[in-house]
Amino acid sequence: MAQNFDPAAATAAYLAQLPPEAHAKATAYTQGGHWLLLWGALVALLAAFLLVRSGVLVRLRRRFEGRRSRPLLVSYWIGGLYIVFDGVLSLPWSVYSDWWRPKQYGLTSQAFGGWLGESAISLAIGALIGGLFFAFLYALIRKAPRTWWLWSGGLTAAFIAIGMLLAPLYIEPIFNRYTPAPAGPVRDEVVAMARQVGVPSDKIFIYDGSKQSNAYTANVSGLFGSARVAMSDTMFKKGADIAEVRGVVGHEMGHYARHHSLWIAGVMSLLAILAFFLVDRLFAPACRLLGGEQIKGLSDPAGLPVLSAVLTVLLLLATPLTNSLIRIAESDADRYSLVNFNEPDGLAKALVKTVEYRAATPGRLEEIVFYDHPAVGRRIQRAMEWKAAHPKPLMTAAPDALVRAAFKDRIVVFPNMPVGMDGIALKADGSWFERHDFGWSRGRYAIAGGRLCLDEERGSRRCYAIGGAPGGWTLAQSGGAPVAVKLDRLPATASPG
To answer: Are 413 and 457 found together in one domain?
Structure first.
């Protein structure tokens, strides 16, 4: 345990970086957001009531059925049109909750026209994809009226997986520009981190998130080959340093490496089975309550507003459960970052910058019910407790002459290196090169003062502290945890491509 280091005092010091009025503003925004869940559900129920009582979907269903009996196509059109009608009816609420309110709290600088245009695109995409989902859902209801809810879990899982796979490739680029981290210290750091834990380094992007939001944020999206970690440019506009990048990207790499998206999708699919089972039991009384006398039953796509109303209530009641599921994944990603990159202060500095849209110190019950991320105060406390329990080692450098003799004409290979990375080749003439997902890097290296420093010909530099290990060597970058490396012989003919 580190001497004279108090995790509670360190946590309080980090939170004190923001003045009391900033914390009060964040609390007002966060707690107001809790009420938005209820009001948003009531708006959804009102929209469902209006659509049912208007009979518009019944009339459209009759018109589509009158031309030709194609139930799958009828369900698709009714499903897509329902999403559009619901979006239009809910537009005033969406303007308030998604644009005006964040604008008042300084969390977005986006003009209303830009927000409205992107919302229209999102609605169109949602109608196209949602129409397909509802077409297949109603096909299940018609084919298996007693057990359709059981099969709905597989349908939900399939659509979640397809959406996760395709979103980074075709949907997210509609709204933002994603580019690989540019050459320089950030990219070099990210490449080194990726090499250390076996994550492909071409999966780290920076995007123009400030276009929509002023929030300090990063995310992981995609599935299998499309998965990627993306840092919003707001991180760097708010002064993110290398330590913060290590903490934040390490967290997002945790989501990627621990397959959080997959197991969350799996659990959500199981919850969908339960939700659709309850829909099967509650549809008839809900339909009577909303005045849907012209709806022919659960298999009638014109009853979509009734189905959605039941799901709205169920999802509201399930909020603590779904939030807790995501919160567990977020805590696990924090731990992954700390274990693999040992950057508790970098993570804490980044977390402080998220307080503006997520109050730092809620009550325990409030956190369980409403927070889909652990409270910032608690996350910083855990990071500081990690720091106390895992102080960064004060490494005693091996004699430089011994290190030079061991490392020259060798390839430094890190554990779990992904396909596409060959290690750092150190030639006897003082030059080095390596292959990674961005191509080739090369330059000059020096071993002095117990450190290996790589100067890239494009001007950037990265250094590793060198330490001894039983039967080999360790390298530690930027004060991170030492990683055991293997030194392979460099073929005499080796050269960069």
So the answer is: yes
